[in-house]
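Chapter summary example.
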Amino acid sequence: MEEAEQARAAAREAVRDVEPSDLQRAMADRLAQCSVVPGALVFLAANATPGHTGDRLAERAAGVQLVYEGLVLTRDLVETVPWTGDETDTPADLDVLAADVLVAKGFRLLARTEAADAAVRTVREFGRERTDVQAGRESTTRSLEASVFDLAVVAGASAVGADVPLGLRQYAVGLADSWGERPLGSPAEVLPERPADVMARVAGPSAPESDDAVRPSATDH
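The structure predicted for these 221 residues follows.
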């Protein structure tokens, strides 16, 4: 789908200036193979929300995708414990650095948008969920995918200069929850047929949430 291709291209472009070359190559390779559902959702949410799409939508898609991929890599590292005790375990060290840079780059792209607070909330929820898992507790925090899908909708819908539809956010979270097993699949596997039509329908008028309603402007600050 076109939105997925745009999201992947934007994410890879966002890390093109990373140095050293080994780190840049590792990040580019990961972005070439990962699921780009979060980035695609940014474009789909913007198109589903009534209004005029603002500038730099591709940057927002890249920001969401980078945050997600950085946190996925962090989760993988925590769960697999890649270090073997070798003091020169370069691949593992490179992955740790890549995870940090991906999240930082994503934050930078979203920092001057209306999705900045949602990005911070995503990382905090991820931290709480990981803490619960490590402590052997059942977590009541949303999954990483649910948090990121919500972030994607906020980033996309807020680009058009209208309130972010609550129905669209609820739909995105439900979409993530319904996927179930990791890793996240491709857009063709995760999204419904004709996702643009479905999202436009669920983006109908609804009351904003009282705690974190997003009232965006038409363009980035």
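To summarize the output: Residues 105 and 160 are 23 Å apart (CA to CA).
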